[in-house]
């Protein structure tokens, strides 16, 4: 009987919570993606969200999905959350780490995840599971031995003033 609190958040809730909070920085009006990379000792190594590269003004570049001119859509400019987290990490190697991400990684992020040595993907949503990108991601993860599984959502709601 140590008397410790019982309702503290689990490691999984903590890391997915950090991923979701990171995603709240996104300027994308349709899909906000956030992620959190964690080492084997449960230390957070990096975080990211989908956004524009440095120097590209959020108010100057387009955020729309479709248009006659592909150069006026967001797709050619945004850096995905996972790539941002990998590129932002300045501490050395990500070998053996895991990534919590709110959306299943696309094929380009999957390549970066594999090459950086991340070994496990815990994803919140898989809404693009029918796309070629996600099908290719899973094929590459399977071949490369990167494990992936859905996050188990809990009933916990987090509400606080910031
Ligand atoms: O792996 C990913 N990581 C990531 O950050 N994104 C971002 C890119 C876009 O800003 C947004 C997807 O936009 P939309 O759902 O409107 O197509 O999510 C998208 C994916 C894969 O779909
Ligand atoms: Zn991606």
From TrEMBL:
Residues 10-148 form the CMP/dCMP-type deaminase domain. It comes from the Bacteria. Its cofactor is Zn(2+). The keyword Cell membrane does not apply. The keyword Hydrolase applies. SUPFAM superfamilies: Cytidine deaminase-like. Keywords: Hydrolase. InterPro entries: CMP_dCMP_dom, Cytidine_deaminase-like, dCMP_deaminase, dCMP_deaminase-rel, Deoxycytidylate_deaminase_dom. This is dCMP deaminase family protein. It comes from Ohessyouella blattaphilus. The lineage of its organism: Bacteria, Bacillati, Bacillota, Clostridia, Lachnospirales.
